[in-house]
């Protein structure tokens, strides 16, 4: 039995990624524990957008490495925005005790990555893939009546003051069909309220064929049985 624990930092979009990582790993045979003291593998899903978030991530890494030194933890894996911002080479020099590094959208590669690591194989930094039209499982961490619904990833505006395009990449909208299927799946497990999130919600659909709009998306989401917006 491979026990895992995840430390999720930063925004609601990152929380959706953490929930998806847990869902993917649970479906692959890993067992989630809320206690880092008991975990064999600790994952830290970081934020790196602003300096206070970077400091929080660094503190979390140092804290989790103590469990590796004194507890049952064998592996500490750092993923998310901090890794995409600073890169494995720079971070591994600062934290040589960390066993692996993954960027954003890590849920697309985390299962085979951890399987190789657990088998004793040497792992290298793995670039995450832009997710396709696949509905990944999620293990919700919000109150049972509510959940976040991520409709897009990234931003295509090159604002000089903002790191989001550099960290998360350009706008990549989920197709309406995929969003509707995820919303229906969440409603089926008792979720009543969905909180729509994205880095650039207003630009939703501009990169998709036919350019569906946010207004159209919301009009169809409210029709889903069981949801009360």
CATH topology of the largest domain: Rossmann fold
Q: Please give the order of strands in the largest beta sheet.
A: 2-1-3-4-5
Rounded radius of gyration (Å): 18 Å
CATH architecture of the largest domain: 3-Layer(aba) Sandwich
Approximate helicity band: 25-40%
* CATH top level label of the largest domain: Alpha Beta
Let me know the number of strands.
Answer: 9
Number of domains in the coordinates?
Answer: 2
Structural class of the secondary structure composition? alpha/beta
Q: What is the N-to-C order of secondary-structure elements (H for helix, E for strand)? A: EHEEHEHHEHEEHEHEH
Tell me, briefly, the overall form: globular
Main sheet properties: 5 strands, parallel
Give the N-to-C terminal Cα separation.
Answer: 40 Å
Low-confidence stretches: none
For the record, what is the CATH homologous superfamily label of the largest domain?
Methylthiotransferase, N-terminal domain
What would the average pLDDT be, to the nearest integer? 92
Count of runs of 4 or more consecutive helical residues: 8
Strand content bin = 15-25%
Concise overview:
This protein is an alpha/beta fold and 229 residues long. The protein is built from 8 helices and 9 strands.
Q: How would you sum up this structure, described in words?
A:
It is a single chain. The protein has 229 residues and is an alpha/beta fold. It folds into two domains: 117 residues, Methylthiotransferase, N-terminal domain (Rossmann fold, 3-Layer(aba) Sandwich); 77 residues, Transcription Regulator spoIIAA (2-Layer Sandwich), CATH 3.30.750.210. 37% of the residues lie in helices and 17% in strands. The chain contains eight helices and nine strands. A five-stranded parallel β-sheet has the order 2-1-3-4-5, with helices on both faces. Strands 6-9 form a two-stranded parallel ribbon. Helix 1 links the parallel strand 1 and strand 2. The longest helix has 20 residues. The model has no long low-confidence stretch (mean pLDDT 92).
